[in-house]
Design goal:
The chain folds into two domains: 200 residues, Rossmann fold, CATH 3.40.50; 129 residues, 3-Layer(aba) Sandwich (Rossmann fold). The protein contains twelve helices and 15 strands. The protein is an alpha/beta fold.
Length: 376
């Protein structure tokens, strides 16, 4: 029989005690395009997730009696649908308990089936295509208004505020861009407007001259665009180069500081964009968040990092409420959550859309975006 010294016994007891009270590591996923033409938006979203994780870990949250350390597993889908399914499977295999992402509708929708099959909740902070939450999955949620609301707001603004009657619509043929353009067209027609031109490019189009030449010949009162800033910037610049002073109204994919840079001297007060959310001064904790974000990352918020923050915080709050990190256990709590967030109250409809989603119309002014209307 072996004999143990008092010191050896003390060390053994300390080790056992340390193990029993060690932090439980819980992996949560985040996916956004961190490479490619809209990487600036993807990195903005990722930063929102990082800040939420850091805030949660600073609180030393206890779940089932043990302190939980949340670990962010971040993936880059490059804004590509095929890559999105690859990284979604990668996150499933990594045993993440939930995912915030993806940024685009075209990536969020195909990835959502993999998360649903694995029983893992997915909250997008920025994908707006209505189809995302119409698939019947119990795992899909979004914290922004959808394109029925956003497209309706764009069409209504063009017709009522800008007094447009003859409307041209352009999109980038992605699930997001085309879906948004379809909703714009439906709203314009419902209000008695005439769509005189419906054109499209791709999510990589930067030469719009032939499309714009065709549109110019139709003499529209307003041009509406569904797509991201990487393509909207060149579109606007080339509109002005052709002498088209027509107002441009773009969706949230173009409502960013990068859009202003890409449009160059083409951007003016006749440029508008929408965001599927409320402006900073209408966010309950917007001022504080924007200041903390700038201090932490040394950059300004692009668009959706506050919503990414709220999405990640909602995931963690649902785990706390369920006292479990098992998705099967905390998923019902997420579905019924009512939580004060940076952007407003986070609460979902039965199909996973945000309750009471708002859309804000912005106008270019003083080298920035000024909110001019909020549409509920």
């Amino acid at each position: 029989m072996k004999h143990f010294t008092k010191n050896a016994i003390a060390i053994a007891l300390f080790a056992t005690s340390s193990l029993s009270f060690a932090d439980v590591v819980v992996k949560v996923g985040q996916v956004s395009p961190m490479s490619g033409p809209i990487a600036h938006l993807g990195k903005d979203n990722e930063a929102g997730a990082i800040l939420a994780i850091e805030d949660a870990n600073a609180k030393k949250i206890k779940i089932a009696g043990q302190v939980v350390k949340f670990e962010l597993v971040s993936e880059d889908d490059a804004g590509d649908p095929k890559t999105a399914t690859v990284v979604a499977q990668k996150l499933v295999d990594a045993k993440v308990v939930g995912v915030v992402g993806h940024l685009n509708s075209g990536t969020s929708i195909p990835a959502s089936r993999l998360y649903s099959d694995a029983g893992i909740p997915q909250i997008t902070p920025s994908a707006t295509n209505p189809k995302y939450t119409q698939q019947g999955f119990k795992t899909t949620f979004r914290v922004v208004a959808n394109d029925v609301q956003q497209g309706g707001a764009m069409g209504q603004f063009a017709m009522k505020n800008l007094k447009g009657k003859n409307i041209a619509i352009v999109d980038d043929r992605t699930a997001y861009g085309q879906g948004l353009a379809d909703q714009v067209e439906a709203r314009v027609k419902a209000l008695g407007g005439k769509v005189v031109s419906r054109e499209y490019g791709t999510d990589k189009t930067t030469d719009w001259m032939s499309v714009l030449t065709s549109i110019k010949s139709r003499a529209p009162d307003v041009v509406l665009y569904g797509g991201m800033d990487a393509t909207a910037g060149p579109l606007l610049q080339q509109m002005r180069r052709l002498g088209m002073k027509t107002p441009l109204v773009a969706g949230d994919g173009a409502c960013s500081p990068e859009m202003i840079k890409l449009a160059g001297n083409g951007i003016d007060a006749n440029t508008y964009c929408t965001i599927a959310g409320v402006p900073r001064d209408k966010m309950p904790k917007g001022k504080e968040f924007y200041a903390r974000f700038k201090k932490r990352f040394g950059m300004d918020v692009q668009t959706y990092s506050p919503y990414e923050y709220d999405a990640m915080t909602a995931l963690i709050t649902a785990m706390q409420q369920a006292n479990s990190t098992d998705p099967k256990v905390f998923l019902p709590k997420l579905a019924s959550i009512k939580m004060p967030g940076v952007t407003g109250v986070i609460q979902f409809t039965p199909n996973g859309d945000i309750s009471n989603g708002s859309v804000t119309v912005h106008q270019f002014e003083n080298n920035g975006w000024k909110p001019v209307a909020v549409v509920k």
